[in-house]
Specification:
This protein has 420 residues and is an alpha+beta fold. The chain folds into 3 domains: 74 residues, OB fold (Dihydrolipoamide Acetyltransferase, E2P); 65 residues, no CATH class; 230 residues, Chloramphenicol Acetyltransferase (2-Layer Sandwich), CATH 3.30.559. Helix content is 32%, strand content 24%. It has 10 helices and 21 strands. Strands 11, 14, 17, 18, 19, 20 and 21 form a 7-stranded mixed β-sheet that branches. Helix 2 runs parallel beside helix 3, helix 6 packs across helix 7 and helix 6 crosses helix 9.
């Protein structure tokens, strides 16, 4: 038997939580095959089989384990199942399931096969089945298919189920009304870390927030004009994050105190911009870092944002990808937030909050016009950043976003030409 132990994942981490077994007891695993998922206070990581053999799990899902604890054992002396037997078993399973699946597909195509159900807002996941009529209503009414309780054979959503969900929005059909049941869940290591750091930020910094608003007309027009060519050239969408990251980097270099932090009795200034991007992952808030964002192009920034967001969603972020960072950007606008006061990501000294773009009546040149406006917020540590610096920093971001042609040089092209 070979012991599989919890690996060391960081100097300050002494315990982890066993989140999920990816292989069941008695299963034959190959060398380096992923067998389990562990979660530390900072990230989720995988455990691999050190040798091929039969798996014998020791820990249970939800257990808290110390670094070095045995999480599983592998019997490397066990013989590997013959490929013929495995193939025969797989064919038998496929044969047993293919008949009803084919019949169901012929008699009533699933919602994923109908064009109406393929709209991004109303697409039905692969593990949810519905009759054509039910799928059509879901598409037309833009209902979340996951919130509907199916009553058909094999967990299929019927027309009645959809109509019941429409008649009683916000309530699960068949669920007891006016219940007062409580439910307790163990707080994950990641959630405990987020809680501790947020309270620490509130208690140890002189946090203050300043606000401004930015007219997004120029950025939106630029995206509309070039988004197709940008996607064709770089293979990634032209989003708002690259504009905000680029503008933030220029502003940080003009106001270095916003890009610094306090270390004991010293101020640590950074000649680079490592921008942390707040991402809402399935298990909590994570903040992966874009290194040297000031040196990246718009396309490079967009590619990095997509890469980090995808890893966060799949719980694949490494410790290195979340450590460091000199300044944070968070976008509450994706959830509909109109205005907020973001909390500093310590030990950093400031954080920029983006919000929902909303058309509002504003006065331009003495005339009332409708413009797509966004409120911006910068929370900062007043111990290191003065009011003049924080306000000027945010105003600079506003100027760059309202004049995106300045993002190439960080200043007005004409003034750069005239060296003014």
């Amino acid at each position: 038997m070979i012991d599989i132990k919890v690996p060391a994942v960081g100097e300050s981490i002494s315990e982890v939580t066993l989140v999920k077994w990816l292989k069941q007891a008695g299963a034959y695993v190959d060398r380096d095959e992923v067998i389990a998922e562990l979660e530390s206070e900072k990230a989720t990581f995988e455990v691999n089989a050190e040798q091929a053999g039969v798996l014998n799990p020791i820990g249970k899902e939800g257990d808290t384990l110390k670094i070095g604890d045995v999480v599983a054992q592998i019997d490397e002396t066990a013989a590997k199942p013959s490929s013929n037997g495995s193939t025969a078993g797989a064919q038998a399973t496929a044969a047993a399931t293919s008949a009803p699946a084919t019949t169901a597909a012929t008699a009533a195509p699933t919602a994923t096969a109908t064009p109406a159900a393929q709209a991004p807002v109303t697409s039905i996941p692969n593990d949810i089945r519905a009759t054509p009529v039910a799928a059509a209503i879901i598409s037309d009414k833009k209902i979340d298919a996951g919130s509907i309780t199916p009553s058909g054979a094999g967990g299929k959503i019927l027309k009645h189920d959809v109509l019941e969900a429409l008649a009683h929005p916000g309530r699960t059909p068949g669920k007891e009304l006016f219940t007062r049941a409580d439910r307790r869940e163990k707080m994950s290591n990641l959630r405990k870390t987020v809680s501790r750091r947020l309270v620490e930020a509130k208690n140890t910094t002189a946090m203050l927030t300043t606000f401004n608003e930015v007219d997004m007309s120029a950025v939106m027009a630029l995206r509309t004009k070039y988004k197709d060519k940008f996607k064709e050239k770089h293979g990634v969408n032209l989003g708002f994050m690259s504009f905000f990251t680029k503008a933030t980097c220029y502003a940080l270099q003009e106001w270095p105190a916003v890009n610094a932090y306090i270390d004991g009795e010293e101020l640590v200034y950074h000649d680079y911009c490592d921008i942390s991007i707040a991402v809402s992952a399935p298990k909590g808030l994570v903040v992966p870092v874009i290194r040297n964002a000031e040196s990246l192009s718009m396309a490079d920034i967009e590619k990095k944002v997509v890469e980090l967001a995808t890893k966060a969603r799949d719980n694949k972020l490494s410790m290195e990808e979340m450590q460091g960072g000199t300044f944070t950007i968070t976008n509450g606008g994706v959830f509909g937030s109109l205005m907020s006061t973001p909390i500093i990501n310590i030990p950093q000294s400031a954080i920029l909050g983006m919000h929902k773009i909303e058309e509002r009546a504003v006065v331009v040149g003495g005339q009332i016009v409708v413009r797509p406006m966004m409120y911006l917020a910068v929370s900062y540590d007043h111990r290191i950043i003065d009011g003049r610096e924080s306000v000027s920093f945010l105003v600079r971001i506003k100027e760059l976003l309202e004049n995106p042609d300045q993002l190439l040089f960080g200043k007005d092209p004409v003034k750069a030409l005239l060296e003014l």
